[in-house]
Amino acid sequence: MLELRQEISNNYLKSFSKSVDPENILISPGAKPILYIAISLLSSGGNEVIISNPSFPIYRSIINYCGSKPVFFDLKEQNNFNFIADDIIEKINDKTKLIILNTPCNPTGSVMMRSEQKKLFNFLKNFKNKIYVLSDEIYSKIIFHSNETSLIEQSGLLDNIIVVNGLSKSHSMTGWRIGWGIFPNELIDDAVKYATNIYSCVNNFTQYAAISALRETDEYVENLKKSFEERTILMVKGINLINGFSCIFPKGSFYCYPNIKKTGLTSKELQHELLEKLGIATIDGNNFGLKNDCFIRISCCTSKNNINKALTILKNHFNK
After folding, report:
1. Of 247, 266, 242, 271, the residue nearest 257 (C-alpha)
2. Rounded CA separation 228/222 (Å)
């Protein structure tokens, strides 16, 4: 729907002073189809795709399915899990076709600062081969103590960046299944063909809802961000009072990623114990990458009352 694509274009001009042609915007039923289309278009035997460790599990799954090789750079706890350009640059070689960045990050809640973004894009601009960046910005409106950022600000001609976003997280519209991708000129036609053959189109009432959401909900989005921040602070402060747990305050999203090494349990063992014995659902860190056995992901996307209940249960169990 042109009206929605125009509204998205207006949003990027307003927020980032970037002019995006509506013809370069592809509407999708949620953000995941854009991930698949982008990775698939840029994958072939021998290509490498760089992703963070830890990261959203779907990236690695799609990369493997499409025949490319995932290459990992570490988000280090001692750096607050932040994205460091040099850690990415050292993984780049002649086989690199795509870099996937998710900031704020699922599962860590960490971000890539503008200075690091600029350093990476300056390197890519001067690299002998063209390398695309897929920027997953689904949590971009949930950054604490800062305005929304987008890697689209770093790509001068928008010729080497693909942006994926949607309304599931920022507007609590998960069930509506509405997302979009911004593709460079040389990829958009093939992306549209992919979309046509995968999901045909997105139903129009969902697109009209998205138009209203983008136009009329600035106050709601800001209040939601503040609410997520309050819940995250509550969770992290509480987690850090529990024996065996230590947790860094995330800079965005609604996740925290505590280190649980001192519990003496592996992340899989702890995940099972928390669920089966205490009724608390978490996710084993190894689901998000390699050697994440010392971490679990906890979602703060619930009420403060539920967070306090969970923290009380944890304290009674671990602080005996």
Report:
1. 247
2. 10
pLDDT in tens, 80-120: 999 999 999 999 999 999 999 999 999 999 999 999 999 99
Structure tokens belonging to residue 91: 């993984």
CA dist list (Å): 212 to 104, 208, 209, 264: 25, 6, 5, 50
* Nearest-5° Cα angle at 85, 143 to 191: 75
List alpha helices for the chain, DSSP H. 2-16, 32-41, 57-65, 85-89, 114-126, 185-198, 204-216, 218-239, 267-278, 304-318
Q: Are 47 and 53 in contact (CB under 8 A)?
A: no
- The full set of domains in the chain, from first to last, is 2-216 (3.40.640.10), 219-318 (3.90.1150.10)
What are residue 27's phi and psi, to 5 degrees?
-85, 140
Residue with tokens 């080497």: 160
Give CA separation, 284 vs 79, 177, 251, in Å: 21, 26, 21
Q: Is the pTM of this model over 0.90?
A: yes
